[in-house]
Write a structure and sequence with these properties.
Blueprint: H1 13-24, E1 29-32, H2 34-40, E2 49-52, H3 56-63, E3 67-72, H4 74-77, E4 82-86, E5 91-96, H5 112-117, E6 127-129, E7 138-139, H6 144-150, E8 152-153, H7 159-165, H8 169-179, E9 183-184, H9 186-198, H10 207-218, H11 224-232, H12 236-239, H13 241-247, H14 260-274, H15 279-287, H16 292-295, E10 297-299, E11 302-304, H17 308-322, H18 327-338, H19 352-362, H20 366-375, H21 382-400, H22 404-408, H23 416-423, H24 429-444, H25 452-461
Parallel strand pairs: 2-5, 8-9
Antiparallel strand pairs: 1-2, 1-6, 3-4, 4-5, 6-7, 10-11
Helix pairs in contact: 7-9, 8-10, 8-11, 11-14, 14-15, 14-20, 15-18, 17-18
Length: 469
């Protein structure tokens, strides 16, 4: 018995109009892929992708009357995909029927079944007709709807052929298994490991696509599950070897340190639950301890990781550049990792000045660093956990009495012109030195940001290397 979807519950009238336009032109058009999968699982589709028997040039002609703009996305998407901005500002994509590389010996124009057979997984190899004669009819030649109901992830074709066609698919398999709660077909997992260990296909995946998949994983409520599965399927060593290396850190016989990989996964999930829903912050949580691999030292039967924050920040910069994170996100990630132990260093002996300097050092990521500091407290010893959490609370109590904005952005009461007048100097390094000195006094609490008289007195009481500027 064929399935049917009441499309009017999910798509707008102008999309039905598209179905009529293609039918009038003698062409078939189908809603396809993720949107159909989402509808069948009760989710609201966010992206609308269509496939059609029309060629790219025919798509542009057919759609012209109901669109504001048409963009050829062939270079970015392949398969002659056309991006359409409809008159109501809804964006869709329409792609001619396609045929996978492993179907290259097939003759004639591609068919709908061939198009669906070229897709990554059966749960995405689904199409719904928009043609007026059979609108809403589901085409499911590979049993994707049953796989959704039974909780199975399979490829519509041989998995090795499917992965050769697009080597990002092993990583997408991880995401779909976790996000939809699916069990992978045994042949699929074997093919992932074979792809990793016996081919060079993964080398040709654009790193931007990998990063996009990783970002989607990070934004899940429990992102650790994805990276644990990547580790199990041997994908972590391909795209995030620095994280994979944490799992290889085993203590010498007769010694002990916590499983750093398991610790990292716990930190990631806790940070996701208590910190901002921000991919860069969560990526920093994932990478926060990668510096421990190179800084681990065994001394007198105990392990230490001195300087792992600095080393981790250096490595994180390399990771971010390799994965093409934006410069803004890269600096964000590196900064959080470099400072992630700042709160853990706190003790009751700290002076008020030390607390203020810590707040200034933490800077714009103060709240994230607090969330990460809490998440970083993992131990089976409940008393130890309680003590360390209490230390974070005491630090925050000290911070409550500080005007944080003044500490984060200290503004000296004298500008550069006044400093030059006061010291009788011209523009140069000495002005910068004096300005930074005043900022440091504000940060430490020794100078009020509006106290110009004290600032003048302090400047005149000190000796400055004016002649050497």
């Amino acid at each position: 018995m064929s399935r049917k979807i009441e499309l009017e519950h999910y798509i707008e009238n102008n999309i039905f109009q598209i179905g009529r336009l293609f039918a009038d032109a003698g062409k078939d058009i189908y809603l396809v892929g993720g949107a159909v999968r989402d509808i069948l699982t009760g989710r609201s589709p966010s992206d609308f992708d269509f496939t059609t028997s029309a060629a790219a040039s025919e798509i542009r002609n057919i759609i012209r009357s109901v669109s504001k703009a048409v963009f050829d996305k062939s270079r970015a998407k392949g398969y002659e995909t056309q991006g359409i901005l409809l008159s109501n500002d809804v964006e869709i994509e329409i792609t001619p029927f396609r045929r996978a590389i492993f179907m290259e010996n097939t003759r004639g124009c591609p068919t709908l079944d061939e198009d669906l057979g070229s897709r990554d997984f059966t749960i995405n190899a689904l199409a719904v007709s928009l043609s007026p004669d059979d609108s809403g009819t589901v085409f499911d030649p590979f049993g994707g709807a049953d796989d959704l109901e039974n909780g199975v992830l399979r490829t519509p074709a041989d998995p090795m052929s499917t992965f050769r066609d697009d080597p990002l698919r092993p990583l997408r398999a991880v995401r779909f298994c976790v996000s939809f709660g699916l069990d992978p077909d045994a042949g699929l997992v074997a093919a992932v490991r074979q792809t990793v260990n016996e081919t060079d296909w993964l080398d040709r995946v654009a790193v931007e696509r990998v990063r996009e998949e990783v970002e989607k994983m990070l934004l899940d409520d429990a992102p650790s599950r994805y990276f644990a599965l990547m580790r199990d399927w041997e994908l972590l060593k391909v795209w995030l070897p620095e994280v994979d290396a944490l799992a290889e850190m085993t203590p010498e016989p007769g010694t002990h340190h916590k499983d750093v990989f398991e610790h990292t996964l716990k930190v990631l999930d806790t940070a996701a639950a208590t910190g901002p829903r921000d991919a860069a912050f969560r990526f920093a949580a994932l990478l926060h301890d990668i510096g421990k691999v190179e800084t681990r030292r065994l001394e007198n039967g105990e392990y230490s990781f001195h300087g792992h924050e600095k080393k981790g920040a250096e490595q994180a910069r390399v990771v971010c550049e390799r994965m093409r994170w934006s410069n803004v996100d890269r600096d964000h990630i590196v900064s959080v990792i470099a400072k992630h132990s700042r709160v853990a260093e706190y003790s009751n002996e700290w002076t008020d000045s030390a607390v203020r300097r810590a707040v200034h050092d933490m800077g714009r990521y103060f709240d994230e660093l607090i969330a990460l500091a809490r998440a970083d407290i993992t131990s089976s010893d409940r008393l130890k956990v309680a003590e360390r959490l209490a230390s974070v609370d005491r630090f925050l109590e000290r911070v409550d009495g500080i005007e944080r904005e003044v500490v984060l952005n200290p503004r000296p009461p004298l500008d550069g012109y006044e400093i030059m007048q006061l010291l009788g100097v011209t523009p140069g390094p000495v002005v910068g030195h004096v300005t930074n000195f005043l900022k440091d006094m504000i940060i430490s609490g020794e100078l009020e940001s509006g106290d110009a008289d004290t600032a003048r007195r302090v400047i005149l009481d000190r000796e400055w290397n004016i002649n050497g500027q």
